[in-house]
């Protein structure tokens, strides 16, 4: 937040590690490193920000 991202900003470029745990001891089978599985919303201006979301549903667990 607070800096301007280039048009080619990737939701994964600043992530160095991700830990996902479930209460049911299931494994996430959805590829978290696939950019197509992320949604990105950009907000320009003085308080520029990039909001990236990765959603895990029941069918993404095994």
Q: From the alpha-carbon coordinates, what is the Rg to the nearest angstrom?
A: 14 Å
> Could you give a short account of the major beta sheet?
2 strands, antiparallel
SSE ordering? EE
Structural class: mainly beta
* Major sheet strand order: 1-2
Low-confidence stretches: none
Helix proportion:
under 10%
Shape field: elongated
Counting DSSP E segments of at least 2 residues, the number of strands comes to 2
> Count of helical segments?
0
Strand content: 15-25%
What do the pLDDT scores average to?
87
Cα separation of the termini:
34 Å
Question: What does this protein structure show overall?
Answer:
The protein has a two-stranded antiparallel ribbon with strand order 1-2. The model has no long low-confidence stretch (mean pLDDT 87). With 62 residues, it is mainly beta. 0% of the residues lie in helices and 19% in strands.
Overview features:
mainly beta, 62 residues, two-stranded antiparallel sheet, single chain
Topology summary:
Blueprint: E1 38-43, E2 49-54
Short description:
With 62 residues, the protein is an all-beta fold.
């Amino acid at each position: 937040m607070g800096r301007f991202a280039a048009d080619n900003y990737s939701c994964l470029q600043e992530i160095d590690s991700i830990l996902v745990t479930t209460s049911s001891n299931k494994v996430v089978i959805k590829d978290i490193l696939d950019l197509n599985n992320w949604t990105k919303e950009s907000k320009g201006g003085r308080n520029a920000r990039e909001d990236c979301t990765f959603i895990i549903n029941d069918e993404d667990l095994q």
